[in-house]
Amino acid sequence: MQFFSGNMRPFAPAAALFACLALAACQTAGSGTDITAIDTAQGSEENIASLTAVIERNPRDPQAYNVRGSAFGRAGRYREALEDFDTAIRLNPSYFQAYANRALIHRYLGESGKAVSDYNRAIQLNASYDAAYIGRGNLYRLNGRTREAFDDFQRAIQLDTTDPRAYHNRGLLYQAQGQHNFALEDFSTAISLAPDAAEPYNGRGLSYLALGDEENAFSDFNTAIKLDGDIAEGWANQALVYERRGEKQKAARSYRQALKLDPEYGPAKAGLSRVSG
Question: Domain span at residue 213?
């Protein structure tokens, strides 16, 4: 059954999806700050102290609370982030970026219902806010609501988003459906928008591998490891190619590295068992 007409590609619901792989995003248009655009370093104690000083000088400025809330979020101080986003919204009930940022914190806290409600409100306030569609789409994807997830990523892309997450996450949906040529296009676009991010290389490599293009797959997995050697998936993917080539010792070494990074990573556990046996 096709869900889309015209020039949209057909997509059917998936039984299972790949895990969430968030990418650093570019800031979207409009005033205010998107939490995904805050660099990790901006969650430092020094920066938060500086932002607190700004709030002390401007206690009625909703943007100041939104920015500090974003920094709290980057620092993993989620309850403090919520308080700042609550204040920003109370001072400016039309502050759509603050709703989207609060939604992300609710998601981190496992409060999916509240997260969807905030994303819905952000979109109601600004129907062209791509970050809200991407955030809500990823939440839908993780909860198995694949059709709605696809619709949201599609909408963000139709809005000419420059956020690589829209393409990366849509690529994961195509990949989960076995539509690997479409997935390759989306992963490649995500790479062009975020060339230093490892995740889309891992995604594209898996689709290359599914299409029998082992050489390009191996190249992508190696690039992913060079960009971020602390992601277990990259090592497990590299090991899978070694395993397919019959290089069991190299495969075992890469699988062990993946397990060193994430002792519970299932594909690495299974792979190491195969090559060790």
Answer: 199-277
